[in-house]
Write a structure and sequence with these properties.
Elements: H1 27-51, E1 59-63, E2 67-68, E3 80-81, E4 87-91, H2 117-128, H3 131-136, H4 142-150
Antiparallel strand pairs: 1-4, 2-3
Helix pairs in contact: 2-4
């Protein structure tokens, strides 16, 4: 799809909600089922991009809609926690092999300046467009321009 010119490809791997309730797995069970296929798919995709010379052109973004509680409950489950969220970026011509930002010792609160959704959007937009040229293109929807300008691109990646 990428080689055919698709601008965006979205893959949803749903239901990582390991709450450890009736018919919902706990963390060890859920990660045992979901973790290996994700690991394999990401590794294969990144290797394929590199072999095809597309690793600088295509950006892979892996994230959830929010994080999980820093501790396990009595059933080994985790619950919704909006203060910390996983974010993985690969390819796209960005600098990689680094961890940006820190959480506190429990993994529940940001210990450094938080990266916001607006910052993620700005980072993605800066990998796709020359933002200065975007400002001059009156045909671009204002909403798209706002996404590129509202946040701050994650500087450690450029």
């Amino acid at each position: 799809m990428c080689e055919a010119g698709a601008g965006f490809v979205t893959v949803v791997n749903a239901n990582w909600d390991f709450h450890a309730r009736k018919n919902i797995p706990n963390i060890p069970e859920g990660m045992g089922v979901f973790g290996p296929p994700l690991d394999h798919a990401v590794s294969a995709f990144l290797n394929d991009l590199k072999q095809r010379g597309l690793d600088k052109k295509i950006l892979l973004v892996i994230t959830g809609e929010f994080g999980r509680t820093p501790g396990l409950d009595k059933n080994l489950g985790r619950h919704h926690w909006p203060k910390i969220c996983p974010l993985v970026l690969a390819g796209g011509g960005l600098k990689h092999g680094r961890v940006v930002g820190q959480s506190d010792k429990r993994g529940g609160e940001p210990a450094s300046e938080p990266i916001t959704i607006a910052d993620l959007h700005a980072t993605v937009m800066h990998t796709l467009f020359d933002v200065n040229k975007m400002r001059l293109d009156v045909t671009l929807p204002q909403k798209l321009q706002d996404r590129a300008q509202r946040g701050t691109p994650i500087r450690e990646l450029f």
